[in-house]
Design a protein that fits this description.
With about 80 residues, the chain is mainly α. It has helices at about 10, 15-35, 40-45, 50-60, 70-80. It has one domain.
């Protein structure tokens, strides 16, 4: 599928179309991953990156990998220790 969006000329003058497409694919794949719409491998594929480079991108973009608070994590670990 192809999606077309209109952007002002002065907005895109400093980047090539290929760079804009790459940035938009990465942004969208990060959004999908962050919102649990796709798994890691699928998000990386959409971004055109291998998993390692996608993980680097999510770190740079401050996307939470584990959506759990510190307290919840400590509670989970305590529960695991009691097993």
């Amino acid at each position: 599928m192809q999606i077309t969006i209109k952007l002002p000329n002065d907005f895109v003058a400093f980047q090539s179309i290929a760079d804009i497409e790459k940035d938009m694919r990465l942004s969208y794949s990060l959004w999908l991953f962050k919102n649990s719409r796709v798994m890691l491998a699928k998000a990386a594929e959409l971004a055109g990156l291998d998993i390692y480079h996608f993980m680097t991108a999510w770190k740079q973009n401050e996307v939470a990998v584990i959506d759990i608070s510190k307290e919840e994590l400590l509670e989970e670990l305590a529960d695991m220790r009691s097993l």
